[in-house]
Specification:
Elements (H helix, E strand, L loop, with lengths): L7 E5 L31 E4 L3 E9 L2 E4 L2 E8 L2 E4 L4 E13 L2 E13 L4 E13 L2 E14 L4 E14 L2 E14 L4 E3 L2 E3 L2 E3 L4 E3 L2 E3 L2 H4 L16 H6 L7 H8 L12
Parallel strand pairs: 2-4, 3-5, 4-6, 5-7, 6-7, 7-8, 8-9, 9-10, 10-11, 11-12, 12-13, 12-14, 12-15, 13-16, 14-17
Antiparallel strand pairs: 1-3
């Protein structure tokens, strides 16, 4: 962990049921796929299992946490929390992948919670994939995808496009499209411009039409006509210039598996 700056202490680890109209399965635009964040392999530091670390860490490169970590982390690349590991604090990074337990706040360009991952806190991101258990708030500029294994108990889940294959309960805001696939379910207050539901999908709750003049004031999605424009507030949180999201997007095209988009 030579590239880190900050004080580190190491200790041993302490031993609805209203069916919607069936439609043809669509091709998805700007929706991420699973395994969207790769486990880092270069310029990586590791906190191994059997260690409990309290620290303030800032550095260049990536960090893999296999033990228990308490504190704040700022990286220019990827944070990965392994299955069985625990992170408690705030992270600011380009990418974040959680397969263990996370308590706190994530500010990142891309966030993935795997099937074994659990998060209790807040996500501020550009693109998000949720495959584990999430309790808290999720704000993602471009898209949120909840896979079949995902269970989301949310105060608020907001994005342009939200695709639900798992289960979501709480307030859901989609400024462009809410899609619920076969087997997926959403229950709560729903605000969206458009709804697409496959046979077997379930939507239960109060549904309102998204009104930009009202709901855009909630500081969620602005400049939606520009797919490369990041929310200024989220940009501030992850400490990048809003225009730099274009650079990240181009770089990630080669690294992230995506669902093919329609050719216009």
């Amino acid at each position: 962990m030579g590239f880190f700056s900050g004080k580190k202490d190491k200790e041993e680890e302490r031993n609805l049921e209203t069916p919607q109209e069936s439609v043809k399965k669509p091709v998805h635009n700007n929706v991420v796929s699973s395994d969207m964040v790769k486990v880092p392999t270069r310029n990586v530091s590791v906190i191994k299992e059997k260690f409990k670390v309290k620290a303030e860490i800032e550095g260049e490169g990536s960090l893999i946490i296999g033990g228990h970590f308490e504190g704040n982390v700022k990286l220019d690349d990827t944070l990965f929390v392994e299955k069985g590991a625990l992170f408690s604090g705030t992270v600011q990074a380009k990418n974040v992948k959680i397969s263990g337990d996370f308590e706190g706040t994530i500010n990142a360009n891309a966030v993935e919670i795997t099937k074994s991952g659990r998060l209790n806190g807040t996500i501020n991101a550009n693109k998000t994939h949720l495959g584990g258990f999430i309790k808290g708030i999720v704000k993602s500029i471009e898209s949120i995808e909840i896979s079949a294994s995902g269970i989301v108990d949310t105060q608020e889940c907001k994005s342009k496009q939200i695709k639900i294959e798992g289960n979501v309960e709480g307030r859901v805001v989609a400024s462009e499209l809410l899609e619920v696939t076969s087997g997926g379910s959403v229950k709560g207050d729903i605000i969206t411009k458009g709804i697409r539901t496959e046979q077997g999908g379930s939507i239960i709750g109060n549904i309102q039409t998204y009104d930009e003049s009202i709901h855009a004031q909630e500081n969620i999605l602005e400049n939606s006509d520009n797919p490369n424009q990041i929310d200024p507030e989220v940009a501030k949180l992850i400490d990048i210039d809003p225009n730099d999201i274009k650079k990240y997007a181009k770089k990630e095209e080669k690294e992230i598996k995506r669902i093919p988009t329609d050719k216009k």
